[in-house]
Amino acid sequence: xxxxxxxxxxxxxxxxxxxxxxxxxxxxxxxxxxxxxxLRSDPACVASFDAPGAREKVRxxxxxxxxxxxxxxxxxxxxxxxxxxxxxxxxKQRGAGVLIADGDVxxxxxxxxxxxxxxxxxxxxxxVIAGNREVRSELDAVEAELRKKGxxxxxxxxxxxxxxxxxxVVGLPGAFERRQLHADGACxxxxxxxxxxxxxxxxxxxxAMLVAAVPPRGQDVRALDVSEAQNLGDPRLAPLxxxxxxxxxxxxWESGGRAVDGRGAPxxxxxxxxxxxxxxxxxDRTPWPMADGTTVAxxxxxxxxxxxxxxxxxxxxxxxxx
Length: 322
Prior knowledge:
By secondary structure, the protein is an alpha/beta fold.
């Protein structure tokens, strides 16, 4: 009897041990690989502010400066080229003394040569800033050829500070995220580039103007960076507006044809403001649905600086109905 009881106790102990063993946990699902763009940025995209040729004086102060701001030139087909010539002609007729080409100046060297060439035909100095499409080495070669033909082209990737007499321009080329690139060899700026711009803005004579393809992150639907009811700009650029009284930005075409002040409040056309930041909109003839519900095809803007104040006006030449 004692033997039987002992056997039952042993079996019970074994059973308890077996129940105490927890089942193996299921293997965890592998984490999805991060979506990384295969495109890389050219490391030579942004020259140092201390590099030779990083500063250039283009014109003397006259008390008033009118800047023709164009962005999103995009295509070099005959119809678009004719339209861009019309825009440039209108800007020049309104008194523009300088043109700024703010990003998307062509997807390849042939387009860039045509588009920048037609801006240079105006005889005005042309300040160029790369966006997320321009391959640095290709754009450099195009600009060099145009200069040989007499074009007055200043690239803000290399000439980082441009003295226009009545305002000092500081440039920040490129996209702010690698995933935004549209071409291998296009530009992405980094935090160190933003820090260098901040230091440069502290050192230049006021008034100063920041020119970048990417707008700063706005706070509401009135901002320069609204697309599909979202603010898409770079939040790291917002503090720079405390150092630059004026600014020209592009990329977010749905918010083109508008300006804001330092508080983010809209600045109506032909209204003076001590701080004025502008998105001129896309210059190419492609109809763009705007953030305010309208549709606009092909626009630019004229920014006028008198002393420490600026005004702006949209430039949308009359076009035949389609």
